[in-house]
Every structure is written in C-alpha cells, then in structure tokens.
Write a structure and sequence with these properties.
- The chain is built from five helices and ten strands; from the N terminus they run E-H-H-H-E-E-E-E-H-E-H-E-E-E-E.
- The protein has 164 residues and is of the alpha+beta class.
- The protein binds coenzyme A.
- Coenzyme A (COA) binds next to helix 1, strand 5, helix 4, strand 6 and helix 5.
C-alpha cells in the first residue's frame, strides 16, 4: 500500500472508488434515493474529471489498484474522503487521514474541517474531529444530512519562533 499524489489519468479509478464507497458502504446509513442523488451512475465524466483535478487529492494504491483517495485544501477543508467498498475497514482511511495531517502540518494549518456523512462520522470522531453543526444539504433535489466536523491542530498554526 502506498499513498501518492493524484496524477492525470486517475480520474476514472477515483470515480469507481467514490461510487462503490457510497453505493456499498454509505448505503447502510442513507435511503436508496439519497444514495442515487449523492452518486449518480451517469455523472458527467468531464465534470467529474474537472472536480477531482481541482481538489488534487492524495491517492491510496495497492498492487497498482487505486483503493481510496482524500484531499485537504489550503484552508484546511477536506472535500472528498472515500475508500472503495471492497476495501473498507482495512486501515486505508487511517493511512489517508495520517497523510492529510502531515500535509496540514506542512501547510501550518490550525484547523481541519469537513462536511462528514453519517457513515464517516465515527471514523472522523476516532481521528479527533468533533461535530460543529448538523446540516441538511440538498443534492440534486434530495436532502442528504451530514455534519460539519472540525479538528484543531496543536502547534500547527504557530510560527516556528513561538513554538515551545
Ligand atoms: C469512512 C471511510 C472513509 C473510512 O475508511 P476505512 O478505510 O474503512 O477506515 P479504517 O479502516 O481506517 O477505520 C479506522 C477506524 O475508524 C472507525 N470506522 C471506520 N469506518 C467505520 C464505520 N462505518 N462505522 C463505525 N466506525 C468506523 C473504526 O473505529 C475503525 O477501526 P476498526 O476497523 O479497527 O474498528 C470509508 O468507510 C468510506 O469511504 N465510507 C463511505 C463513504 C463516505 O461516507 N465517505 C466520507 C464522505 S464525508
């Protein structure tokens, strides 16, 4: 297993991870109409490619197969965080989360935030995130409840000369 940066050409594999994570794992916590609105099978490939290139995620790869991906933006926002449905609960999410924390330290971020699904909430809680607000976003006409979660990063925002 290795974690690397996104490369052009990864887009379709990332869609498979996204789709299976939602349709095979998150489906336990949401109704079928919510799952279909969140991850429609006919999502425009060009729009998808543009989206994943823009967020520029880290990618988890095992034996040449992409099995997960997650990003952190320069403001500390985690936009996507997905592990393939057939690879859940094998520690891949934790490897990605650790990589995001390393990136956050390098960017000297003080806080990480994300809009977290019901499915991912225990995982984010396990990694030190707390619920800030419960939200009810409407996606393609369907309400898909989630929670804004955040985690403060100790020392990360301090200037080197003020760090202990
Ligand atoms: C949430 C997600 C990213 C976690 O990835 P993962 O690789 O399965 O996570 P890990 O194996 O590193 O899990 C680490 C720990 O987090 C907790 N955890 C992970 N998934 C959990 C779940 N579904 N329910 C309860 N706890 C969970 C457990 O404590 C787990 O440790 P354990 O397996 O020893 O009990 C993945 O399940 C996923 O993609 N889910 C569906 C899509 C989704 O909702 N993505 C997030 C959008 S905000």
């Amino acid at each position: 297993m290795r974690i690397r940066r996104f490369r052009t050409g990864d887009e379709a594999a990332l869609f498979r991870v996204y789709f299976t994570a939602i349709h095979e794992v998150a489906c336990r916590d949401y109704a079928p109409e919510q799952i279909d609105a969140w991850a429609p099978a006919n999502l425009d490939p060009d729009l998808w490619a543009e989206r994943v290139r823009r967020i520029d995620p880290f990618v988890a790869e095992s034996g040449g197969e992409i099995v997960g991906y997650a990003d952190v933006q320069r403001n500390g926002y985690i936009d996507h965080f997905f592990v393939s449905g057939t690879h859940a609960r094998q520690g891949i999410g934790t490897l990605l989360m650790n990589r995001l924390h390393r990136q956050a330290r390098e960017l000297r971020l003080a806080t990480l935030t994300s809009d977290v699904s019901r499915t991912a909430e225990p995982f984010f809680a396990r990694h030190g995130f707390r619920v800030v607000e419960r939200r009810f976003p409407v996606v393609r006409g369907v309400t898909i409840p989630n929670a804004l979660m955040s985690r403060q990063l100790e020392y990360a925002g301090r200037r080197p000369e003020t760090a202990p």
